[in-house]
Amino acid sequence: MKLLRLTLRNFRQFRGEQELHFADLDERNVTVIHAENGFGKTALLNALLWGFYGHDGLTSDFAGKDSILNKSVAASSIPEIEKVAEVEIRFEHEGHRYRLMRSLPYLQEKADSRKTLLTLEVTRDGQTFNDRLPDQKIRSIIPKGIAPLIFFNGEGIDRLAMEESADQVREAIREMLGLSLLQQTAEDLRHHNVRGRFRTELKESATAEIAELLQQLEGLEALVERRKVTREQAKKNLNATEAEIEAVDASLANNRQAQELQHRRQGLETSKAKAIEELGEVTRDLSKLIAEDGYSLFTGSLVTRGRTIVTRLRNENRIPARVLNVFIEDLLNSDRCICQRCLPEGSEERAAVEKLLTTAGDQNVNNAVGAIDNALGRLEELGENTRERVNELNAKRLKLKGDITFYDNAIAEIHQQLGNRLGEEVRELEDKRRVLQDRRDDSIGKIHITTQQIEDDLAKAEQLRKTIDAAEATLEAAELAKRRVSAVEESAKLMDALLEAETESLVPMLNQKIHEHFDRIMDRPHRAELTQDFRFSITQQIGSNGERVDVNQSTGQRQITSLVFIASLVSLAQERAKIPTILRGLSGAAYPMVMDSPFGQLSTRFRKGIAEIVPFLAPQVVLFASSEQYFGMTGAVSDQLENSNRIGRRYYLTYHAPSHSKDVSDELVIGNQRLQQYFQADEECTEIRAI
Amino acid sequence: MPDSNPIPDPSQYTRSQQLFLAAPEEYQKLVRDILKEEREVMHLLRRPEIHQKIVTLVRRHIA
Questions:
Q1: Which domain covers residue A364, as residue numbers?
Q2: Distances (CA, A) of A107 to A83, A119, A253, A501
Q3: Chain A residues 452-511 with a CB less than 8 Å from chain B
Q4: Given CB 3.0 to 4.6 Å as the disulfide criterion, which of A47, A576, A673, B31 pairs with A588?
């Protein structure tokens, strides 16, 4: 898919008709749009999203989503029928050209701004016609789930590389590589209109007792779903709070009075997080050990008693037996003793041999006692090993707990120092941080508790299912309904397993792409890797024997890792048709990447790194950047991009308003050109101008 | 395979292909047909009939 042209008509601050053409040559694939903060970068990004997906596509940071029509136009005296906001996007996909037009008339905006008019013209083999299902067609070309990956605000994209974004990363892979069909199918199978319907049939054909159990099961499953929603919300809150804490931390790190303490605190918090993780691992190991071998700790007296019995039997020469009963029985059966005397019935000799049966031993007893003896030895050894391991793990646990307390105290002390002794700004930041931390802790607590509750409920549900299975086994009438419920449940489980296997199989291929991209910008010893649990790790080679250690990622590294990940997905999506999959018809698709401010507040080194890879991130790249981001830091970005010779089109946004931010210059200077970018005007509007 | 491309050499089966083939044949057929229906509607904003279609398929396959 390649973007060709964007035309805006009265969309937000873009009054009248404005247009921009995207760079579409393979070797000149970058479109740069210069725009100062507040001039309309976000609105332009959202114009594309609104065009493709309507109201649902707008980003969360786009304020006033219900006011799409330019305010001056809305308030003007022109006939209402002519007051229309419109976005037109021309693009190319698989050899066909498309013209998409989404519009929102003034009266419709007042009634319900979500309802827009969409038309999609397709030109194929020189013939143009209207697509009958434009929304469906657009979603088949760019599934909505991948929109946040190809149209995004670069500030904050680094969050994708954070530990807690593993779910988001997994989702991104599934969306971009066409696996969401499996996920959707599993959800549909579990829907109350499908599984619920068969359950109802089962209830109707079951006894009152089973019906009651099924009722309980349904209640439990509904509860699990509600808990999952609560947990998802808590995760979102946690992510948002962590972003806020990060912003406060960045402000503290930049404050001369606070930076030293802040750096120390960050170090302590990293160490604390590591200790908490280790503590979790040790506790899990300990629980596993107790669950599997813990019984051996309480078998001491049993072993002693067993040993006493075996020793006594040995001392009494009862084991091993000197004469076996089978031998005596053979003699009696043959009526002849070992000394060749006859043993007729009723004879004294026979009575003497028969008497031996009372003291003769059994071979099976011999074997059993030997096995018991052996088992007692192993039990004793296991008990000793378990005791040793429990002590070792406990000591580790106590040490880690002590470490965590130490870090907590040191962090609390820094909080006191920052909160009490330094200036007003630091105090305020510190207060804000404390409030945010409390909020973060609440969210973490909620996530843990809900996860535990979900696990407990799922275990109860499993138990209930077994009870129901047992009760139903005898009911013929319920058999068919039961088989259908099982078929639905098993098919949904199969979907889950297929989705998991397909997603995991993509990780090595993604890693290959990630390495290729990452190697372009980072020093050789560094390596980024997506783990099987969808977290990013950056390792550094130490020494010459190839040993690698984990590196704590800075914001810059995370930003690069996130961009590299998205670029790798885009690249893999292009080759989708060649990747083995269980699903039919997953064709490759080339997507553009549209990035608003991907350089954020990064240092020179990282800006250079990102600028170097930007042209290679996707077949087509659209970049929005302010002067500071583009030309700042002694041309970290501009030099790289200009030298790449990849810029195919270039625009700047001019801002017309009564006043503007003092931080922004009236002119945009590009080489020898001085372009006026601010114009004083009574009404606010933005224009797109080509350079 | 659920709705897959030409059947590959068994020695080259992916994990998901192995998982699918390990499921009872009855479920394999059901899943294959359900995926066909899901594919038809996967890009629709509203998919009111998909649940009914799945129910019908389950009834047909598990009779």
A1: 295-383
A2: 8, 19, 50, 50
A3: 480, 483-484, 487-488, 490-491, 494-495, 497-498, 501-502, 504-505
A4: A576
